[in-house]
Amino acid sequence: MAYVVVGCEFLVAVVFGWAAASKLRTASSFRDFTDSIARLRIVPFRLSAAVSVGTVGTEAAVPLALGAALFGLTPAVGLGLALLMLLGFIVMIALAMRKGTAVPCPCFGASATPLGWRHIVRNLLLSAIAGAALLGQLLPQTPVDLVLAAIAAVAGSAVALVFVLFDDVVELFTLRPPARRTGAGI
């Protein structure tokens, strides 16, 4: 169980670290994120910049809090913070869908895919992973082998890419007829 917890912790840390980094990559990236928050019309326009700063700051805090475990501190704080953020994201996406607001998901950088059910599913899965790791942290801990823990960390980090690239993965496995081509010579 300890290795599953380690893998889940690294998965959560990579997902949240990637999310924060993608929004802070350039000034334009952050502006685009702030604009998307305003277009959601869930918070008053005047608060969209503050919500953007708070969101990115909290996303960046999650991997830092999880990394504090390397110094003997509990990763439960980072996991709890991640869980709260994910649940908040689920509510925000549901509200946007209810309003019929079709704003692209700025979760991991620029995207053309509007927030929708796939993002709720992704965040529910991530919530389950963060919750399982948090529960694992609350159970009695057994000593871990560092080599096996490193393997679990690499595996968790690799699986995190599925969540970071979730829109692409869904598109890859969504069965749709090929786009109809028109024009001369085709």
Automatic annotation (TrEMBL):
Segments crossing the lipid bilayer: 77-96, 120-140, 146-166
Q: Residue limits of the Methylamine utilisation protein MauE domain?
A: 1-135
Query: Where is the protein localized?
Result: Membrane
Q: Does the keyword DNA-binding apply?
A: no
List, alphabetically, the InterPro entries matched.
Methylamine_util_MauE
Q: Does the keyword Cytoplasm apply?
A: no
Topology of the protein relative to the lipid bilayer? Multi-pass membrane protein
UniProt keywords, alphabetically: Membrane, Transmembrane, Transmembrane helix
State the superkingdom: Bacteria
Question: What's the protein here called?
Answer: Methylamine utilisation protein MauE domain-containing protein
Q: Which organism is it from?
A: Plantactinospora alkalitolerans
